[in-house]
Specification:
The chain is α+β, with helices and mostly antiparallel strands. The protein has ten helices and nine strands.
Length: 279
């Protein structure tokens, strides 16, 4: 039988961009109230336009949400989902044209694409092809893989192009899998990685009623390998689920985590109140 590849299949959906801004409060306070009102109204109109999909078919892949960030790392968090990376770039440019942008300093951003890992499907597909003595990466192999991905993409469309949850709080963080001298995620077998990810996912399922999540892949797109968005009504839930997951083998041995960013949902219509110091 041909040797089975160790790279799991993945499905990619909506491109995703997170933007983290610091607001120049000192400069804003120098602006006359009438000008503040005009700038704010124009910014809200732009945001509402950016969040309005051009068609019903693009509703889930054309979204923008705003959050008031907690802590010293910044003041505002924008989360954008779009059909293409070019569309994400257009969002950046459109925001930059607003006068409100003159008071914003971008302190961090994260580019990724909604991703679903297919460890179980990968093992079944690879094993079935190997049993038929079909060599990896041949035209017949590639055609079968493409058929599997197309079928799974259709079945998982709602997860690949998700609606941003409307929960009050967001927690975003990037993460890697360890590639150290003693343990290396990428040197583990496909079956072992699949087993650990299955056990890891069981923890998440226990919190399904309290937390919504969006996993996005960023290998080749940004500095970490994945981005994780969690949405909940109670931010303590973020602490509980992440803490429990730290005890999983996949996290305890192989998990590396970047900075955590937490925000409170800020409806566009409430931006004027936020700019006056209230939520």
């Amino acid at each position: 039988m041909p040797e089975i590849p160790q790279v799991p299949l993945t499905l990619e959906g909506a491109p995703m961009l997170h933007q983290f801004f610091r607001f120049d409060w000192a400069a804003w306070r120098l602006v006359p109230a009438s000008e503040q009102a005009r700038i704010t109204a124009a910014a809200i109109a732009t945001l509402e336009a950016l969040a309005t999909p051009p068609s019903e078919a693009q509703k889930t892949s054309h979204q923008t949400a705003l959050f008031s960030q907690l802590g010293h790392k910044g003041d505002l968090i924008f989360v954008h989902l779009r059909p293409t990376f070019e569309d994400l770039n257009r969002v950046e440019l459109a925001l930059a044209q607003t006068e409100l942008y003159d008071f914003l300093e971008i302190v961090h951003s994260y580019l990724s694409v909604v991703e679903l890992g297919l460890y179980e499907s990968t093992s079944k597909t690879y094993s079935a092809l190997a049993a038929r003595d079909i060599a990896p990466h041949t035209p017949e192999w590639n055609a079968s893989i493409r058929e599997t991905l197309d079928r799974q993409s259709h079945a998982m469309h709602s997860r690949l192009f998700p609606t941003l949850p409307e929960n009050k709080y967001i927690c975003f963080y990037p993460m890697d899998r360890l590639r150290g001298e003693d343990v290396n995620w990428y040197s583990e077998s496909l079956s072992e990685r699949g087993r650990m990810m299955h056990e890891h996912g069981l923890v998440g399922r226990r919190y399904a009623d309290e937390v919504r999540q969006i996993i996005s892949g960023s290998i080749g797109l940004d500095d970490w390998e994945w981005g994780v968005d969690l949405f909940a009504e109670d931010p303590i839930t973020f602490k509980k689920i992440i803490y429990e997951m730290r005890f999983d083998e996949v996290s305890a041995k192989f998990g590396l985590f970047g900075e955590f960013f937490v925000g409170v949902r800020l409806p566009f219509a409430n931006l004027a109140a936020w700019l006056k110091g209230s939520l």
